[in-house]
Amino acid sequence: MNELMAPVVIFPGQGPESAYRTAHDLLSRRFPREALDLIEPALADDPRNTGLRTLQAWAYLQRAQLQKAENVLRGLVEEDPSDVWAQHALGRALERQSRYAEALGPLRLAAVMSGDWDHQAAVFRVEQQVARSAE
User: Fold this and answer.
1) Global pTM?
2) Most CB contacts within 10 A, which of 11, 82, 98, 107?
3) Which domains, from first to last, does the chain contain?
4) pLDDT digits (tens, 9 = 90+) for 39-62
5) Cβ neighbourhood burial of 2 (10 Å; 0-12, 13-18, 19+)
């Protein structure tokens, strides 16, 4: 079976906006390695870029590099505790590492801030895991 390959699209001399758009497209098509190849050099030029760091965390989550995702997400949450996506993603990264009690805080915040059913379902799922581990 032939492996699907993402097109390599790198435009030298273009700014972080171009890297963001291309990396977002790659991540939505599930090509996290290729997205990271664009994000990391752009972050070297603009290390505080929240959009690029968010995409970096998303790529790490897709690659199951959960500790790296957690580190990036903790920084994003520290800078902006009202970032619902970062709160939820941090909770998911912790949950995927079986750190259920730690995951509850960010997941609950995301659920309360968004009112989103999927966020509320994540809280319920992790609460059940915490209850099971307490038995």
Assistant:
1) 0.87
2) 107
3) 7-63 (no CATH), 66-135 (1.25.40.10)
4) 999 999 899 999 999 999 999 999
5) exposed
